[in-house]
Design brief:
The protein is mainly α and 308 residues long. It has 3 domains: 78 residues, no CATH class; 108 residues, no CATH class; 100 residues, no CATH class. It is built from 14 helices and 8 strands. It has a two-stranded antiparallel sheet. Strands 2-3 form a two-stranded antiparallel ribbon. Strands 5-6 form a two-stranded antiparallel ribbon. α10 packs parallel to α11 and α11 packs antiparallel against α12. The termini are far apart. Bound molecules: iron/sulfur cluster (2 copies). One iron/sulfur cluster binds next to α6.
Length: 308
């Protein structure tokens, strides 16, 4: 009897396609199968990592290489090997973090109360964390703009990116994985949307710096003169009461700048540590609101619109 020629319509009868089709057809059916069982975007790092684990387990390259010379029984056995490898990997823990690093590239973690111990163990230092103050505008992990109701401490990002400071892109790995912050432990990209954090769960400067009252006097003075609310009001007033608003902005800018300078020169703190104690510099806040604040050689600030 003449063998029926494979016509390439792989979705009409996948079993016939596997029995008679060339290796490219098998690869295409395999991809469809994985897409269906993994139920995740093919582009996601997590999908790629799990796929890699399955294909290594079943030795996919060997199956692909030999497919065209296999008879029907050998093809059936090879296909079964692929399916069993998928089952093993998925049952062993699809609903666990596969350490693909994708979330580490999108954002750094916000610190939660249990992360205080990471400072005690010196996994985290003042140089790796900064403060976002209440009232600051931020972008959520889902890319939505939001105004913070309360302050947050965050691990720094690699400059010019959203990538977490501790993430090593070359090896897709975390430098502190065994001691990673609580939010990283809770991260479940396979589940529903991120749970909104309750205020009581957050680590804040008050808890972190509880044993350093002398620092608190400075932080309070800074908040009084450079609070986000005061700045936002001054920005609003620039059109209606420019003199008064301008004065408030200059006062805040100078206080912020010279206090940071004092902390670095007299207390020998790093610039990064001042961003934990006082939040991000006001020059950056103004930049986000379309104003460049440049220090002149005379030691005063000059404000210009950002597009000038
Ligand atoms: S939680 Fe993050 S690192 Fe883990 S699998 Fe999901 S995206 Fe990858
Ligand atoms: S601390 Fe580690 S696990 Fe957490 S976001 Fe950074 S690199 Fe990823």
């Amino acid at each position: 009897m003449k063998t029926k020629k494979f016509l390439g319509k792989i979705r009409q009868d996948p079993l016939e396609s596997l029995a008679k089709g060339p290796k490219e057809v098998m690869a295409s059916l395999w991809q469809e199968y994985l897409q269906e069982v993994l139920n995740a975007s093919q582009k996601s790092r997590r999908y790629q990592k799990v796929r890699q684990q399955i294909e290594e387990k079943a030795n996919f390259p060997e199956i692909f290489r030999d497919w065209n010379t296999m008879d029907v029984e050998a093809r059936a056995a090879a296909w079964k090997r692929l399916i069993n490898a998928a089952k093993d990997v998925l049952w062993a823990g699809w609903e666990t973090c596969v350490r693909c690093g994708e979330c580490c590239e999108i954002s750094s973690p916000t610190l939660l109360a249990p992360d205080l111990t990471l400072f005690q163990k010196e996994i985290l230092t003042w140089n790796e964390v900064y403060t976002l103050r209440a009232g600051e505008q931020v972008t959520s992990r889902e890319g939505k703009p939001e105004t913070l109701r309360e302050e947050r401490l965050k691990v720094r990002e690699v400059p010019g990116s959203h990538q977490c400071w501790f993430y090593l892109a070359a090896t897709n790995s975390c430098r502190i994985y065994d001691d990673r912050p609580e939010q990283c432990r809770r991260q479940e990209c396979w589940g529903d949307e991120d749970r909104v954090l309750e205020t009581s769960e957050l680590l804040n400067r008050e808890a972190l710096l509880a044993g350093a009252p002398e620092i608190w006097d400075l932080i309070r003075a800074h908040d009084e003169r450079c609070g986000i609310g005061r700045l936002a009001q001054a920005l609003k007033g620039l059109e209606t009461e420019p003199d008064q608003a301008g004065e408030a902005l200059f006062d805040a800018l100078h206080f912020d700048h010279y206090l940071r300078q004092m902390l670095q020169q007299e207390w020998e703190l790093s610039e990064a540590a001042t961003e934990l104690l006082l939040g991000r510099p006001l020059t950056r806040f103004l930049k986000d609101h379309g104003i460049n604040a440049a220090l002149t050689p005379e030691g005063t600030f000059r404000l210009t619109p950002r597009n000038e």
